[in-house]
Each structure stands twice: as C-alpha cells, then as structure tokens.
Amino acid sequence: MEYRTCGKTIIARIDKGEEILEQVKEIALKENIKLASIQALGAVNEFTIGVFKTDEKKYVAKDCKGNFEIVSLTGTINTMNEEFYCHVHMSAGNEKGEVFGGHLNKAMVSATCEMVIYIIDGKIDRYYDEQIGLNLLKF
Fold first, then answer.
1. Rounded CA separation 63/61 (Å)
2. Which residue from 12, 37, 72, 119 could staple onto 3, CB 3.0 to 4.6 Å apart?
3. Residues 95-137: pLDDT tens digits?
4. Strand, coil or helix: what is 23?
5. Angle at Cα 32 formed by Cα 121 and Cα 133, nearest 5°?
6. In terms of DSSP H, where are the helices of the chain?
7. Contact, 67 vs 43, CB < 8 A?
C-alpha cells in the first residue's frame, strides 16, 4: 500500500494480496485519524460481507470468492472507547453482473483498490446499544 495526503484528503492505493480493512486501520493509526469518510473502487477475489438481522441482533456472514469489481465501498472511520473503529459497507459484482453487498468484514485485493479518505475535523465516539444490538454513534 502507498498513499499521499492532499490537504485533509488521503489518496491510497491498496495493492494485490492486501486486505482492505487492515490497510484502512494502518493509515488511520499512522495519521491519527479520529473521524473520516471513506470511498473506494477496485477489484477483489475474496471477501466476507454481513447483513444484520435486527430481530435476532446478529450478523449473518457470506463469503464470496472469484473475480469481483468493487461497485461501491463506503464507510466511516471514528472511535469506540477512544480506540480506532471503522464501519464499512461494500458491494461487488461478478462477470455475470450479479452484485453482492453488505457490511464488510474482510476483502482481499486481487489487482488494486483506489481509496479516498476524507478527514473530518472533530471526533465522534461510538457505544454499544443493548436494545438495538449495534455500535451506534454517540453525540
């Protein structure tokens, strides 16, 4: 991975064989990012996404393997209990035009991933909400 800071924006290239969320964490910790918005595109050959079942308060994960183009990757960087926290969703399409998406748990880059991180002034922490079963933004 390589990246460059341009004002309050970071442009990153995540390389073949690297895991996307690990690289986001590395950048965020190195640059001391407390609040940011993420978007990206690229190609992956293995990823795990989840859908939150609200009635059961749990995620159901789906593993995908093959050749996929990232149709959309969007999310946030912030903190929970003053530590790094990242919430990302991704949709990826295959050669048939089928698209799979949800909460991103893991994604391995197969060619490249071009990411833009928009740093936001401020800080917003998260907390676990027992009633909903998710880590929510705390204002």
1. 7
2. 12
3. 999 999 999 999 999 999 999 999 999 999 999 999 999 999 9
4. helix
5. 80
6. 20-30
7. yes
- 119 touches 33 (CB < 8 A): yes
Six token digits for residue 90: 């991704």
Partner residues linked to 70 by β-bridges:
42, 92
Distances (CA, A) of 129 to 13, 61, 63, 118: 35, 21, 27, 27
Q: Burial level of 113, CB count in 10 A (0-12/13-18/19+)? A: buried
Decide: pTM greater than 0.90: yes
- Residue 19 carries which DSSP code? B
Best CA proximity match to 10, nearest among 18, 29, 45, 19: 29
- Strands (DSSP E) along 29-82, which ranges? 36-53, 58-80
pLDDT in tens, 16-43: 999 999 999 999 999 999 999 999 999 9
